[in-house]
Amino acid sequence: MSRTRLSAATNTWAIFQREFMALFYSPIAYVVLFLFMISNGWIFYYYCVNYARDPQQITLVIRSLFSFAFFWVLPLSPLLAMRLFSEEKRTGTIEVLMTAPVRAAEVVCGKFLATQLFYMLIWSSLLLFVLMLEVLGKPAGPDWGPIKSMYFGLFFLGCMTNSLGLLASTFSRNQLVAAVLSLSGNLLFFSLLFLGWIYRETPELQRLFHYLSFQAHFSSEYIGGVVELRYIVFYLGFTSLFLFLSINMVNGRKWR
Amino acid sequence: MPEGGNRREDPDVYSGEPLNRKLPAGGLPPGCGELNSLAESRNLIEVDGLVKSYGPVKALRGISFSVGEGEVLGFLGPNGAGKSTTLRILAGFMPGDSGRVSVNGFDVGEDSLAVRNSIGYLPEGVPIYPDMRVGEYLGFRSRLKGISRADRKGRIGAALEETQTVDVAGRMIGTLSRGYRQRIGLADALLGEPPVLILDEPTVGLDPEQVRQFRSLLQEVGRNRTVILSTHILSEVELVCSSVAIISGGRLVAGDTVENLKGSLADRVCVVAEVGGPHEAVSAAFEAIPGVSRVETDRLEGAGAGPGAGYCRYRVFFNDAGEGAETIFDAVSSGGWRLRQLAAEELSLEDVFLDIVGGEE
């Protein structure tokens, strides 16, 4: 029993490593990282030049930086996760992979963890800006509390969007289709806040939509500095669902 | 035939995996006699009544065969016959619709991991990650195959050695030539020292020299393993394989050792005749001879243009050895045509193949 558990761990670890390295080999990861840093760097610069004359405004700069960067939640996971299975299907390497003695769950988990790590790496590039303010913005400096809770929330949100992206990539051998699918899923969650606004006459519906939307979580985490347990449960619930469906897809892939 | 592998002395005493020695219930099609008798030794691959459809397309319509230990089976058939489908099912990549498939004593559907543990599989086209270095890739694969850290280096080295790819170990797979990629695929298949190798069209896309090298490599690795390889190149089967299964339209149409298969047609005859005369009339006359199964016509270089002037070479296939050449001579003389050559020809496996596949249609 412990032997099979050990081999499951080794297989997952091997696939995790291979997948993480593949992200560094693929141009898409660098393109995403480049765009991410350029866009956020520009916003940071803009706010620093216009608002950060007064050290008291540092909080405003950081809040604006993260508010704008938050929109990256939408495309980031689809872009990183789209190739996970699509590429394997398109090139046929899935056949070599799945005829090795590995379980679908090990493959799915390895790929998911690699994407998750890369996702967090990309987000952590924002910390460079915050560090700059920490060093140069003396004596005020940034307030690390909300930043920590923001990252905490981003991690779980990333679990959900990445697992959705992974699921989408099991559907198609075309990366673009996979990306559009998971982007649509993210947009759905994103648009719930507006749906809530439309249904503001019905408080129950509004509460439900508000509860499901990303932005509400963001404001609670960043502005409120609080990570609520219900959000974590919410994210992890969806993550497990998407991973479970992915494993079924990979097993059911055998029709092809 | 097996070279007396260490586990073969007494199959009933062998204490490892359960032995599936059940013969196909419905029996095999005619011509599969040898495959049936091979089932007496330990069969590493057993396929019984395998059926598979892709939607409305029936890819396999009930295939049964078995491969004994140490045997090299050539899986032969025209494109779209169901070769790849069968091998994919054997490798545990996808399930069949019905029928029983076992590899190394494990059922492919129920014990997929154990099956995949005992095979080395080289899919058609050798899809391997182009963005990894050869050594890196084999390291990754050996971890997936559960080779312990201590053994890894030695196994990878041995596989590289065996496939003569030591010199490209540091190269990016994407930059390798087709022949080398093929060998890396084979090295990967050999990594876990599996008792069964499944190779799907392993020589497609290689140049003639690479094909020659690859075949000798296959002969080398097939010495102590059970190998099943698919191909549509007949000479390959004659060179590398100990037995043949011919599949056409999703059915097994013949299965036997190479010698027996050729031998079963030994009593059939092919007569080559060069005849001057109107070729439609000549070949019609030959086809009308009782016992003739097929006539091939080749126009000869420099044959005259006018009707009745040119010589053609006819290959006339008889179903039974008889007075083949004499009946042809009679036909030519009664037609009043000219005959300048008449000879009997030994049938190649290609003729057997065309005969069987053609006969199916």
List the helices and strands and how they pair.
The complex is a heterodimer of chains A (256) and B (361).
Chain A: H1 2-25, H2 27-51, H3 58-69, H4 73-81, H5 83-91, H6 93-98, H7 104-124, H8 126-136, H9 144-171, H10 175-198, H11 203-212, H12 214-223, H13 229-252
Chain B: H1 33-38, E1 43-54, E2 57-68, E3 72-76, H2 83-90, E4 98-103, E5 106-107, H3 112-117, E6 119-122, H4 134-144, H5 149-162, H6 178-191, E7 196-200, H7 208-221, E8 226-231, H8 234-240, E9 243-248, E10 251-257, H9 258-264, E11 269-276, H10 279-287, E12 292-299, E13 311-318, H11 324-335, E14 338-345, H12 349-360
Parallel strand pairs in B: 3-8, 3-9, 6-7, 7-8
Antiparallel strand pairs in B: 1-2, 1-4, 4-5, 9-10, 11-13, 11-14, 12-13
Helix pairs in contact in B: 4-5, 4-6, 5-6
Describe this structure in words.
The complex is a heterodimer of chains A (256) and B (361). Chain A contains 13 helices and no strands. Chain A is mainly α. In chain A, helix 5 (83-91) packs parallel to helix 9, helix 9 (144-171) runs antiparallel to helix 12 (214-223) and helix 9 runs parallel beside helix 13 (229-252). Chain A is globular, with a radius of gyration of 20 Å. The two termini of chain A are 32 Å apart. Chain B has 361 residues and is an alpha/beta fold. Among the domains of chain B are: 33-118 and 194-263, Rossmann fold; 267-360, 2-Layer Sandwich (Alpha-Beta Plaits). In chain B, 33% of the residues lie in helices and 27% in strands. In chain B, helix 4 (134-144) crosses helix 5 and helix 4 packs parallel to helix 6 (178-191). Chain A binds chain B through residues 7, 10-11, 13-15, 17-18, 21-22, 25-26, 91-103, 254-256, and chain B through 54, 88, 91-95, 113, 116-117, 119, 121, 123, 125, 127-132, 140-141, 143-146, 185, 188.
